[in-house]
Each structure stands twice: as C-alpha cells, then as structure tokens.
Amino acid sequence: MSCLYPLFHLFVFAVLHSLTTLEVFLSGVPNFPEFTTITLVDGVQISRCDSSTKRAVPKQSWMTKMTADDPLYWDRETQRCIRNDLTAKIDTDTLLQRFNESGGIHTNQKRYGCQWDDETDEIHGFAQFGFDGKDLIFLDLRTDTWVAVQSQALPIKLLWDRQGAVDHYRNFLTRVCPETLKKILRFGQSSLKKVLPEVSLLQKSPSSTVTCHATGFYPDRAKLFWTKDGEVLEDIGETLPNGDGTFQSFVDLDLSSVPAEDWDKVSCVFQLSGVRDDLITKLQRDKIKTNGERETLTVYCLLGLCFVERFIMLFFSSFNSENARPHHRPCPRPLGCSLCCCDLGSGSSQLSSVNRVEG
C-alpha cells in the first residue's frame, strides 16, 4: 500500500547552510571507540575525533586552511573532544542509573549546531540529546525552554532551568556557531557548492514500470519521489554515489496504479537539502526514454568511507526521524556537553554535568 505524505512546495530559491556536530558514546561494544564525534557543514563531514585516536582531524583538505586564521583551531578541537569523551562516560553511567539499566549495549547521543539562511540572514540553533536511540531532552529556542521528552529527563530540565542554561546555549547557537559556520564556508565555498541533477524518466517497454532517475547532484542529502496531486505515491528513492564525487537516486512507478487519465496529476519530485525549490518532472509520454533497456545505474562500492562515520550518520538519522526539530542546540555541561561552556569562555559559570543532577 502506498504511503501518503503532504508535499510542501517551497517558493524562494535560497540556500540554508548548516553546521552540525554529532556525538555518540557507545558502551558495551568491544574493539570499537567508545566516544566518536563528527562535524558536518551542509551535510558534508569536515572533521572527526574518537576516544581511540584522541585527535581531531580534518576530513576535507580545505579544512586545513582553518589554521591560517586560527593557528590553534585543531588543538582546541582535540582538547574539546577529550573533555567531551570524559564527561560522556560519566553522563552515560548516570543515565544508566536513571533508566535502571546495567550492562549490555547503550548509547548516549548529542546533536547540536546552527542553520543560516544566506538570503534572509536568519539563524536558528538546535540542541538534542538522546539515550539508546530515543529523544531525551531538547532545547526550544523559540520559547527559551528545555523540553523533556522522557520522564527520566525531568530532573535534568529542572537543573538546567535553575542554572539558566538557555542563556549560555543561546549565545553559542546564535553567535559563536554562525560565525564559525560562515568562516568555514569561505574556505570550502567551491567544494560545498550545491549542484542540481539531470532528471530522466526511463522505461524498458511501454508496459513496464517508469523509473525516475536523478544523477549528478551534490551533496547527497536529497530526496526523490513520485507524487500525485501533491501527495507522495511511492517510497523515497535511495541515494547512491557516482564515481566523480556526485550522487544519483532512482525511484520506480508502477503504471498499473495510475490510470491514463491521471497522468497529468503525477510528477517526479527531486528535493536537495538546503535548496528551497523542488525540481519537478511531469509524467508525460514524450519525456519517457524507451530505448529498449533501462539506462545502467552504476553503483560504486564505498570502500573509502569509514564505517564509523556511516554508522553515526545513519544512527542519528534514525534518532531524529520522528522528532526532527531544526531550531535548537547545546552548550553547558549537560549530557556530557563539556563542549559549550568551554567554547563560550564562560569560566566559572560552567554548568553542572547531568551526573550531578541527583545531588
């Protein structure tokens, strides 16, 4: 049975840039780093650090230019990683007690960052914390409140409310983070440029399924799907790599489910993250390529991609899928967030870690 979702058409062509940090503390898994953090700009990984290497390293060659303006940038990122590793371990132990868990595999996750609209100059910050793949608590900067998603997070919320954590977070999310994002964008402008794809409708024979194929887009944060009267008809297509650094996606449409008189109501829609205009291709007979064979869709093995990074990004995709909140982020010393207060240079105003909530 086809899933139906509302389709929102965005009408202004502009780009939303983002700086996002993902942190995972994974306990109970041997021969695997307990703590891993990766940072992404516009969905492209730019740095990485884990508890095994204890060193923050650039994942894009142009990120080495950051030391031109800030010689201590990577040293500071390394120290932040080490601090967050230590506090994440303490916080995970505390959360295990709160959830009455012991032993086994458990995860303590954080997702935080900011978005910047390069047309309106609008800025949004976001901060989300989770445990074992489920939302725990997040910051809503629109109302300046912490929202406890689970009852175990209520003591954390009350503590952070008493400590005025929102003010610290707001400063980092709306000032420090956007400034850093804009600096990174200057160095990686050419590499981070968004590229729209070429979209084709393919069919082996007049009676077979029609495939919508989008290729040559960048980055890989994209969606491709069929719609009828503005509602999604089929599953969203999978995104695969091309050999030249760009990406491709394809999704099939069973024509038996679409009467001939309804063809003009059906479209293939491509959405690239950060680009506000959808690329829409109408289902029309003269636009379908029927060369006897469907064009070959080359799938390349991602031998060069690190398993850890893919695991973390997929994990957070699942973690945020049901409660995606694009406008929040962290800073005090919450679920191991030694990061923000230290980055803010707040000195003695650092906030307590979650492991002290019960005190």
UniProtKB/TrEMBL annotation:
Residues 197-268 form the Ig-like domain. The keyword Signal applies. SUPFAM superfamilies: Immunoglobulin, MHC antigen-recognition domain. GO terms for biological process: immune response. Residues 1-22 form the signal peptide. Keywords: Glycoprotein, Signal. It holds the Pfam family MHC_I. GO terms for cellular component: external side of plasma membrane; extracellular space. It comes from the Eukaryota. InterPro entries: Ig-like_dom, Ig-like_dom_sf, Ig-like_fold, Ig_C1-set, MHC_class-I_related, MHC_I-like_Ag-recog, MHC_I-like_Ag-recog_sf, MHC_I/II-like_Ag-recog. Belongs to the MHC class I family. PANTHER family: MHC CLASS I ANTIGEN TRANSCRIPT VARIANT 1-RELATED, MHC CLASS I-RELATED. This is Ig-like domain-containing protein. The lineage of its organism: Eukaryota, Metazoa, Chordata, Craniata, Vertebrata.
